[in-house]
Amino acid sequence: MRLKKPHWLAIKAVVFFVSLWPLVQLIIDGMNDGLGANPVETLHLTLGRWALRFLCLTLALTPLRRLSSQSWPLRFRRMLGLFTFFYASLHLLVFLWLDIEFSWHYFRQEVADTPYLLLGLATYCLLLPLALTSTVNMQIRLGRYWKTLHKLIYPAAILALLHYFMLVKSDLNQPLIYAAVIFILLVVRIQSKRIA
Amino acid sequence: MSMFRLASIKSSEITPREIFQARRKIIKASLGLTAAALLPTAAHAEKKPFEAVPIGPYSGDFPVTDYEDVTHYTNYYEFTTNKTGPTMLAQALKTEPWQVEVSGEVEKPGVYHLEDILKKNSLQERIYRFRCVEAWSMVVPWIGFPLSDMLKTFKPTSRAKFVEFTTVYQPENMPGQRSKSLDWPYTEGLRIDEAMHPLSFIATGMYDDELPKQNGAPLRLVVPWKYGFKSIKAIVKIRFTETMPQTAWHKAAPDEYGFYANVNPNVPHPRWSQARERILGAGLFASKRDTEMFNGYAEHVAYLYKGMDLSRYI
Which of A40, A101, A116 shows the shortest C-beta gap to B284? Predict the structure, then answer.
């Protein structure tokens, strides 16, 4: 059966609300003493992890289209890309607000010499233009440059990984899993380009 | 902490104060009790076993962190590298019987039963600040005895310049020890003058109760002026040495963790600032606290490091 426009709208609505669930869960936990002894850290790390997960999901759509020879995965690319940006923004906001308290003094003291935090900021700077040019209007206006610009997702993924690797103390298992996923998603791209 | 509670009314500043003051009233009546007399029995289900333990010297008058937070947020890599996991996982640790092997530069080496160690040392309570190298902190009312009291019973020789401590190796019950997150078993060390300093403490309980397994039962070190990783948990070996012992975190990352690991807001960790600390349980909107030199114990311990460049001896 071929899905029609209303079907796709309904499916997209479901994906949208499911993607909001991690945030809803944090708010519920926050209201029920469920964020643990260090709630700022819980918020900060959970939001960062979800930003990275959505980045992986976004990167998975193009290989999925090629593997399935179907075009439907691309219908979700903008939404999942924007959710990556959404969670990355909340992750940064929690840090600047609850950790740094929007203070220039604390920013200089705690961020300026801290490479993994600077890498996090750099990652966000790469995601920002992608989010700003995500509309159909901008896509048309930028023409062929749009595609080139949106290749920034690849360095962003790598910087995000480095940012994660540099903050752990000794156990690299978690960042290694994300690194493996992103590595596979990038390799699949190069391979399928060669075949094409 | 509810997300929407005002930061100025910390629950940690209210309840524990009452407990703290109630406790003080009991103290005078109960001086002189020994560890043996206070060993917990099954009948103590309601009453906490160490309620009558007197407050010792150097105990601070700080607002105590909620028991719930202290027992649900621990770094115990022998179980897992996340902080909430050890609360459940550590219950598998076998702590009975427990022995401590004493060796090296001592007149009385040997294998000591925990009961014998406890019999020789009278218990006291110390409310100490605890500052983790990850820039969070808490205040814990420990129950135990000065480390020096215990070490003296083993009669260290004049060649004993350092003390090395080793955590139990129980890979069948400690899943983290089956992975290579650190070089197991965990070891730590102190210079002999640090170990003999009256602030250095051995904890066998906390919050008037037995020490929970995730917090280092049955026997752990507490060195309040140093980063938390120095305060080694579940000790099974004590070795007196002439040369500086190797320590677990120093082995894992020598440029990041030194032997001394004194709390120092002026020397950042190579990857993050140590200028401020997050107070556990203070809630979502509480400011961080400015970290103090030697975690606020400078007047007691600064002399130990006279003439040492503390940006080099990290």
Answer: A40
Nearest to A179 by CA among A166, A169, A194: A166
A107 found inside a domain: yes
Judged by CB atoms closer than 8 Å, whether chains meet at B1 and A33 is answered as yes
Residue A58 lies in a domain: yes
B235-283 per-position pLDDT tens digit: 999 999 999 999 999 999 999 999 999 999 999 999 999 999 999 999 8
**Number of folded domains that form chain A:** 1
Would the CB atoms of B272 and A114 count as touching at under 8 Å? yes
Nearest to B167 by CA among B95, B71, B257, B105: B95
**Every domain of chain B and the residues it spans:** 11-305
Residue A135 lies in a domain: yes
Of B66, B81, B273, the CB nearest to A109: B273
Rounded Cα–Cα distance for residues B144 and B138 (Å): 18
**Residue A15 forms part of a structural domain:** no
Whether B73 and A38 lie within 8 Å, measured CB to CB:
yes
Give the predicted TM-score (pTM) of the model. 0.86
Pairwise CA distance, residues B271 & A117, whole Å? 9
Q: From chain B, pick out residues whose CB is under 8 angstroms from the CB of A32.
A: 2
Provide the domain limits for residue A147.
Answer: 39-195
Cross-chain residue pair B280–A109, CB shorter than 8 Å: no
Cα–Cα distance for residue pair B32/B123, rounded to 1 Å: 9
Residues A81-135 pLDDT 10s? 999 999 999 999 999 999 999 999 999 999 988 899 999 999 999 999 999 999 9
Q: Nearest Cα to B62, choosing from B13, B124, B21?
A: B13
The matching CATH number, chosen from 2.30.42.10, 3.30.428.10, 3.90.420.10, 3.90.1150.10, for B11-305 is 3.90.420.10
Instruction: Indicate yes or no: CB of A170 within 8 angstroms of CB of B2.
Output: no
* Nearest residue on chain A to B253, alpha-carbon basis: A170
Chain A residues closer than 8 Å to B69 by CB:
36-37
